[in-house]
Amino acid sequence: MKLNFIFSSVFIGFLSYGFSTSAQTKKPVTPKKAVVVAAVKALIATPLEIEAGKLLISKSDCMACHGIDNKMVGPSYGSVSEKYPFNMASVANLSKKIINGGSGVWGTVPMIPHASLSQEDADKMVKYILSLRGKAPSGVPK
Ligand code: HEC
Fold first, then answer.
1. What are the φ and ψ backbone dihedral angles of 101, each rounded to 5 degrees?
2. Atom of ligand 1 nearest to the CA of 64
3. Probe ligand 1: pick from 81, 98, 118, max atoms within 8 Å of CB?
4. 79 Cα–ligand 1 center, Å
5. Residue 91 burial by CB count (10 A; 0-12/13-18/19+): exposed, middle or buried?
6. Whose CA is nearest to atom 3 of ligand 1?
7. CA-to-CA distance for 119 and 27, rounded, in angstroms?
8. How far away, in angstroms, is 74 Cα from ligand 1 center?
9. Cβ distance 124 to 52 under 8 Å?
10. Residue 40 confidence (pLDDT)
11. 97, 96, 82: which is closest to 134 by C-alpha?
């Protein structure tokens, strides 16, 4: 807990340092922000896991109901990636949903359960889906 607090303070310190120096030099903040976002993503999902998730999705029945950037029976993966922050809580929540099925978030049509899917594989699938934020073509319905 204490260690966590120290880590957060250092991290916040690092962030504000990054922002204040860029404010002084009047450089756009975006590249630094992108680096921080990429670093946080790398802590949650490795590129290998994301690739594995993509492959698992292509081998499963997912694409029968989901498109990358077009709504089908279910929401597009682009929309899902815009709706949830890329963190462990989202990964846990969404992989549980894939395994158990459910409805009510995107409409009344339910997603069928995928009971034979392991937690590990479902996690990788979600990491791939969440990695699409900002990559799916624009105009993605939210
Ligand atoms: C029979 C159609 C169908 C199949 C097959 C299907 N889905 Fe879905 N999926 C849906 C529907 C419908 C929803 C919206 C559910 C809701 O509104 O809560 C959904 C929602 C989702 C969500 C968002 C959940 C939320 O709570 O926001 C994710 C992530 C997802 N699906 C991933 C997958 C993956 C990965 C697979 C393959 C293992 C898959 N789906 C297979 C129909 C399907």
1. 75, 180
2. 5
3. 98
4. 12
5. buried
6. 65
7. 43
8. 6
9. yes
10. 75
11. 82
Q: How far is the CA of 52 from the centre of ligand 1 (A)?
A: 18
- Counting as low any pLDDT under 50, the low residues of the chain are 1, 3, 5-23, 138-142
Closest-CA residue to 60 (of 106, 118, 110, 104): 118
How many angstroms separate the CA atoms of 142 and 130, rounded? 14
Residues 92, 138: contact at Cβ < 8 Å?
no
Q: Which two tokens stand for residue 83?
A: 């709706």
Which residue's alpha carbon is at the smallest distance from atom 5 of ligand 1?
Answer: 62
Confidence at residue 135, expressed as pLDDT on a 0 to 100 scale? 83
**Rounded Cα distance, 100 and 111, in Å:** 9
In whole angstroms, give the CA distance from residue 82 to residue 63: 18
**Ligand 1 binding pocket, CB closer than 6 Å:** 57, 60-62, 64-66, 73-75, 80, 94, 97-98, 102-107, 109, 111-112, 114, 125-126, 129
Look at residue 101 in the predicted model and tell me its pLDDT. Answer: 98
Distance CA 15, CA 129 (A): 27
Scan for tokens 């030099």, then name that residue: 25
